[in-house]
Amino acid sequence: MSRHRSRKGKGLSPVLIRLIQAAKYAGEDAEGRDIRGTADALREFGTLALWALPIYGLFVPNNNDVCMVGERVAKEHLGFDEARREFREALKVVGLFEHRDPIESAHNHVMSVSDNAYFYAGLAFGVTLAEFS
Asked: Average pLDDT by consecutive 10-residue portion of the chain (133 residues)?
């Protein structure tokens, strides 16, 4: 007896769908910050997870394909371009490029480590949350 795999992919997790709905409904976080883009970001990240997990597995924070999608989502829904622009404007107070370049390199390293930490925190929170549902 042959087993047939469904051609239709699995949809977003019901827990993730509830979180998306909660973000849409709330509109702001506990500290009053606007989180309207969070719902769309969660939906896109969920779709990314459905695509990436079967191909790359769980440990993909630095995979180029995943990072490109993550950066696009951050730009479209979470204000990444604005944050980057603010950083560049702040960096302009450092006059010489020779002084600015090491600062940018160090900042990139800090952001890379931070991104990995948040990725793995999200992974741990997601897996833990799934156990509660």
From this structure: 50 89 88 88 91 85 85 90 86 80 86 80 76 66
Residue 44: the pLDDT is 92
User: Which pTM does this prediction carry?
Assistant: 0.74
Sequence-separated (6 or more) residues with CB below 8 Å from residue 58: 123
The answer to whether residues 12 and 46 touch, using CB atoms and an 8 Å cutoff, is yes
- DSSP per-residue letters across 6-69: -SSPP---HHHHHHHHHHHHH-B-TTS-B-HHHHHHHHHHHHHHHHHHHHH-S--TT-HHHHHH
Q: How far apart are CA 35 and CA 25, in angstroms?
A: 10
Who's near 120: CB < 8 A, 6+ residues apart?
Answer: 61
Give me 7's structure tokens. Answer: 């051609």
CA-nearest of 75, 69, 72, 77 to 24 is: 77
Residue/partner pairs of 59-65 with CB below 8 Å, 24 or more apart? 61/115, 61/116, 61/119, 61/120, 62/112, 62/116
